Amino acid sequence: MSKKTYLIIGAVVFLILAVSGYSIYKMAGIFDGKSVLTPAKLLASFPIKNSSLTPEAASLFQQRFDETKKRLQADPEGFIDWLYLGVLKKGAGDYEGARDVFIYAGQMRPQSSTPFANLADLYTYFLNDSVKAEASIKQAMANDPEDYNFYLALADIYRYKFADGAAKYEQTMLDAIAKFPDNPNLIGPLAAYFRDTNQTPKAIEWYEKLVKLLPDNAEVKKDLAELKKIQ
Fold first, then answer.
1. Rounded to whole angstroms, how far apart are CA atoms 153 and 168?
2. What DSSP string runs through 68-102?
């Protein structure tokens, strides 16, 4: 088995490693309820639509599906296996199938953030449904309000998927920084956003904060110096 194949499967496994949250799941805006999802339906097929997969990788995806299917048939309550199945379907290019699996996982564990974070990613980057992407990531945030990555995801949904999302992007990032102060993983993206949108005074303000947090980061210092040249 090639190193590339191991990397593909490794990436698939990595995607399901998120923590659970603590609020009640609400279906509004995420699942329309027009169809009933059952284990039998979700396990019925495994279409491989990702044309970039090598034959070896496709075979390995099929093998992993077959193994996961057997485990779920033996234990339909296997939440982690349902998450893994969703990621397998996504990796195989079956985005609608992955969506259905993650919706089902959300029905199983309405207080977990993981199914909704995965749904948000699918709706944002693969199914092109910005409204459901927003609803899904907000549910993940409600379930686990201590994960700042969900704020980043919501902000990016506004920035890249909503025509009028610039103001919402900025406000979401400011809300995140208020909740998680002095976090360079939040301040850095906001500073870069102001730089990239030619809001130089704001960019300088936030880069100066970033330099204080990361005094040894040469790249951050360089960006700040370049901004001050054009001020």
1. 12
2. HHHHHHH-TT-HHHHHHHHHHHHHTT-HHHHHHHH
Walk me through the domains of the chain, giving residue ranges and CATH numbers: 1-146 (1.25.40.10), 155-231 (1.25.40.10)
How would you write the pLDDT of the chain (231 residues) with one tens digit per residue? Answer: 554 444 444 444 444 444 333 333 344 456 665 569 999 999 999 999 999 999 999 999 999 999 999 999 999 999 999 999 999 999 999 999 999 999 999 999 999 999 999 999 999 999 999 999 999 999 999 999 999 999 999 999 999 999 999 999 999 999 999 999 999 999 999 999 999 999 999 999 999 999 999 999 999 999 999 999 997
